[in-house]
Amino acid sequence: TYETILNTMLETRINDFGMEDVHSEITKQVPVVHNTLPTNIVILKPGDSPNCNENIHTACEMYRDDLSRGDRLYISTVMLKIKAAQSERDHLSMLLVEYIDDIVASQNAHVIKSCKDSLWSLVAKLSSAFGEPNPATHYLFRNAPEISENGIKNILSFY
Q1: Residues in contact with 21: Cβ distance below 8 Å, sequence separation at least 6, in sequence order
Q2: CA atoms within a 13 Å half-sphere pointing along the CA-CB vector of 80
Q3: Residue 98 half-sphere exposure, CB side, CA atoms within 13 Å?
Q4: What pLDDT, in 10s, does the model give residues 103-114?
Q5: Which top-rank group of organisms is this from (predicted)?
Q6: Domain limits, the chain
Q7: Could you give the CA distance from residue 157 to residue 151 in angstroms, rounded to a whole number?
Q8: pLDDT at position 133, please?
Q9: CA distances (Å), 11 to each of 16, 18, 104, 105, 123, in order?
Q10: Rounded to an integer, what is the distance from CA 134 to the centroid of its chain?
């Protein structure tokens, strides 16, 4: 379970891990739903940051022939999916920062335990929300215009 992962990290690594490490360990436990082959990425030389629109577009153009379809609409769709995934990760990071209410990571064991408790409280509330017949009506999402029926269906399809 996730709690076991966090407890193990606290016991073995004490103060030597951050949210990225926790995320990495948790994602190792999540089964892959889609039966797709892993990506094969070869970086020949370092370049610009891949996270801006122009660089994503350039990368898609560069590897257009490697994609199963080479038309512009497909490239645009791939670009939008990449941007959406990056945006979801950014939003989740912001959610954790806002919920834990501490932008600066502290090395204090008490603070780590407090952050862990806050994170598990959030997990419990989200589990409760997504366990309802219509998660969009849960109090956590009442004033969140970004939450849509389609988005909730996508989230539930992964779990």
Answers
A1: 9, 13
A2: 6
A3: 6
A4: 554 445 555 666
A5: Eukaryota
A6: 1-30, 36-101, 104-159
A7: 10
A8: 83
A9: 11, 14, 22, 18, 21
A10: 22
